[in-house]
Amino acid sequence: MHYLAIGILIIGIVLLTIEIFVPGFGIFGILGILAMVAGIVLTAQNLWQGILMFLGMAVFLTTIFTIFMRWVTQKQLYSSLILRDVGQKEKREYDDMDYFIGKIGVAATPLRPSGHVDFNGVRLDVLSSGPFIPPGQKVIVTEVSENKIIVERLEENKQQGNERLQ
Fold this sequence. Notes:
Layout (H helix, E strand, L loop, with lengths): L1 H20 L5 H17 L3 H28 L1 H6 L4 H10 L8 E4 L6 E6 L2 E7 L9 E8 L2 E6 L2 H10 L1
Helix pairs in contact: 1-2, 2-3
């Protein structure tokens, strides 16, 4: 009978360990706790002994799992479980849009404040930083912020200076 109780306790510990590494809505954890309680009930001779055994097992398992998690975080295994370069990829994605800073385009739709601008055959969604810009008006890209291209109306004196640069 004691071998059955010890086996159920071991199964409970294994299920609790699985709960740490496998997301399962707490199913493994609940089954692990139930198995531990069943093993303690089969082993304990009275209620107080059962409560003390359960508390002792809880303290023991918490200590073991804490030590184990600290050990795992210091090893190579832990770093392979964490995706670290997500933030870097997002930044690189918008770096290509910096190419358009200073480029001149023609408003294909009214910009109030958002709309479409044609940059030599490349049509992009943009935001105007100033007032309404009618279709056909020349605009210049002043800023790229994350995935937003900010444009403003190109005035005649700026336009002549920029045409010499391009």
